[in-house]
Amino acid sequence: MMRYKEEKEAKKEAFRKYLESSGAVDALTKVLVALYEQNDKPASALEFIQQKLSCPSISDYEKLQADYSHLQNKYNDLLAAHHKISKEFEEMKSSNALATASRKETTESESPKDGI
Q1: Where does the record place it (predicted)?
Q2: Domain boundaries of the chain, sorted by first residue
Q3: pTM (global) more than 0.70
């Protein structure tokens, strides 16, 4: 039983050190102090904390998600158009190369040969 408590305390201590070394404790302390020092307490402490930690609110998050979805659709449309135009361009290059080769063959066959 004593070993279990020691392991639990060691895990708590390791986690506390992790939070301190990552700066999470300082950031949370600053936000909580700012909330404490507010003369007029906000209606939602959670929204205050999110705002101070630069987290988007739920409505901001939903707007960002909608913007992302719109931009992803626009990207997909542009990518499809790019692939279509690239394919058309390659086909035009190919047909142009064939036409050039055909004209070259026609020109060579029509020109008089030396010695005839």
Answers
A1: Nucleus
A2: 1-55, 57-116
A3: no
